[in-house]
Amino acid sequence: MATLLKLHGDNGWAEQVERCRSSIAQSDYHGVDRLLRLYGGMGSLNDVVLQSGGIAPAEDNERFNALRTDAWKDANTLARDRASEDSN
After folding, report:
1. In the chain, N or C: fewer CB atoms in 10 Å?
2. What is the pTM of this model?
3. What is the distance between the alpha carbons of residues 79 and 39, in angstroms, rounded to a whole number?
């Protein structure tokens, strides 16, 4: 996701996504929390549409949407696993 965001000049979102990815890669659970929070509310990661020169390239947006969905699913799985561990 970060690569596509950077490609389309959305460095703010790219930095936030990369920060979450880095934390998760280091087994820092706060990265999961931060990533899931990026998906909530108006103006969230869910609302991002990649654009270049005022044009939203369909192929890049389809790829970004797939990556965004996969990241959400993976983060939710990690959150559920963590909740399950905490309840034991």
Report:
1. C
2. 0.89
3. 14
Nearest residue to 74 via CA among 44, 30, 32: 32
3-state DSSP percent of the chain in helix, strand and coil, to 5? 70, 0, 25
What is the Cα Rg of the chain in Å?
14
The rounded distance, in Å, linking the Cα atoms of 36 and 18 is: 13
Helices and strands: H and E segment counts in the chain: 4, 0
> Is residue 44 over pLDDT 70?
yes
Asked if 22 and 30 count as a contact pair (C-beta separation under 8 A), the reply is no
Q: State what percent of residues in the chain have pLDDT above 90.
A: 86
Residue with tokens 């990026």: 38
The residue whose two tokens read 């990241």 is 71
